[in-house]
Specification:
The chain has helices at 20-28, 45-61, 81-92, 105-112, 139-149, and strands at 16-18, 34-40, 66-72, 97-101, 119-123, 129-134. By secondary structure, it is an alpha/beta fold.
Length: 152
């Protein structure tokens, strides 16, 4: 059995670059499932502190129909941005769906109605936004919403 060197990423941690339309299409494509989208950035300390809660939620509810999505808002125009994102995701062992939004901040700020992360959105099985948490992200509340939507 081959041994992974420290330079190799753990199996299952991937990140995909998407445009805003690709993100909305992905969420719409998850109809029938509950979707939690966590918008974060490498420079956002509260985001990184809360990130393990997204992974815990995923671990507890994925089999019941939860799709957990992390969306980095780091600017890909900045040198090394994608590497920083990947390094963080690998450290977290984030085997969820991980995306980097490849848009100018002006666009996502307007579309998401935020100045910056954190932002977590919960979508029900019909693809409708159930609730969003800006700035003050409360994963205990998110957990209750997810459990209710999944009928637990």
């Amino acid at each position: 059995m081959p041994v992974l060197s420290p330079a190799e990423p753990p199996a299952g941690v991937t990140v995909k670059v998407v445009k805003y339309d690709g993100l909305t299409s992905f969420v719409k494509g998850q109809r029938g499932k509950v979707v939690v989208v966590d918008f974060w950035a490498d420079y956002c300390i509260p985001c990184k502190r809360e990130f393990p809660n997204l992974l815990k939620l995923h671990g507890e509810h994925a089999k019941a129909g939860l799709v957990a999505v992390s969306v980095s808002l780091d600017d890909l125009a900045e040198e090394g941005a994608k590497d920083k994102v990947m390094k963080f995701l690998q450290k977290q062992q984030a085997t969820t769906t991980n995306l980097i939004l490849d848009e100018k901040p002006e666009l996502w700020q307007k579309k998401l109605n935020i100045d910056g992360p954190p932002l977590v959105m919960v979508f029900n099985q019909r693809g409708e936004k159930e609730k969003e948490f800006k700035d003050d992200v409360k994963y205990d509340e998110i957990e209750k919403i997810v459990a209710r939507l999944l009928g637990k």
